[in-house]
Specification:
Rossmann fold, 2 domains, disordered N terminus
Length: 409
Amino acid sequence: MAGEMMAPREVPDAQRGGAVMSADRPALMVFVADEASEAAIRGGIGDVLGAQMRRGTVRTAIKVLEKEVTPRVLIVDISGIEDPFGALDDLASVCTPDVRVLVVGERTEIGFYRDITRNVGVHEYLHKPLTRDNVARLFGPHSQGREGGQDRGGHVTAVCGVHGGVGATTIAVNLALQLEAATHSHVAILDLHLRCGTAAMMLGARVTSGLRIALEEPERVDSLFLDRVAVPISDRIRLIAAEEPMDAEEHPTEEGVRRVLDMLRQRFNHVVVDVPMPPGPVERVVLHRARHVVLVLGPDVASIRDTVSAKKLVSATGSAGRVITVLNGVGRRGYLPTRLIAEGIGGPPEILIPDLPRQLPRAANLGRPALRESPQLRRALALLSQEIAAVRATEGPRSLLARLFGRGG
């Protein structure tokens, strides 16, 4: 554990059984008490050669490791354990000192996190509900045998429609509002549709040409850029967008979008980017830097084809971001059922948004966010914000611990 997890009590090798060092020791062993956490860990750590996944808590791990070989990396669940520190002390007595221990639990207090990672020697702690993203970011480097410094800055979430008309801008705008409501953090909406973008219209906002200038001439982006360009939507939400005429010949640069993203990430906890598809060089920069790539599709054959292509394209950019598929318009008459969509794209869409033929157009035409008038949309986007920000869909603001973990690119 960190350096060493609590010096283990002296126990003869003959009594420690498999805890003695072995060249055949497992790379990773996981003991978690619930199915949802197991699924998040499987999705977050990916394929680790020799990994073993078992159901149980730290007490189960102690019983198993009294007889079996200590893995190089061990993930244990302390949920429901009355004396977690005592249990971890018992665990130390049956493990070799070089084991790297990662812990899952339900407690969210910052004091507990500090105690368990600094005083006990646990390498990392994650509270439930786990998400694949947090597991990948905080447990992944340990399980893969590598550790690197974390990028400290706001999360970038790219929202892309797999083709026109599927409602990607609607999802991007309302997702930003949902993230602010759920996390009480600062959120930026960046609309990269420089011509014919609709994010400003949906929010009833007026924008300037500042974004185009920033993307074309990055040397002009200074510390006052956000004050001049960002339009206040609420105390914690800002819109950065443009409404260039249709005959405008804009020439955004890759360096320009990098500079804008860097500036936004310094000031905002979450940056939600409405990304045109198919992407050009500028949009590929966003995809590459995104923590999450949200692919919005409709219940139609074209969406199946384009979703498959979009997933390959995101992978080709070298993005480490997690792809989340959002099916918008579930139950729309005359369109495909969700079952056929799932078969076509290689798995069920992760977020389902029902067909809302009245609420969404009405909100867009009035320049009011649909989230405030549609409980169905709020419920669906609450699940999406849970995946992005590690906040429970049924709760209010995140704990301080979740906010600390929520930082990074």
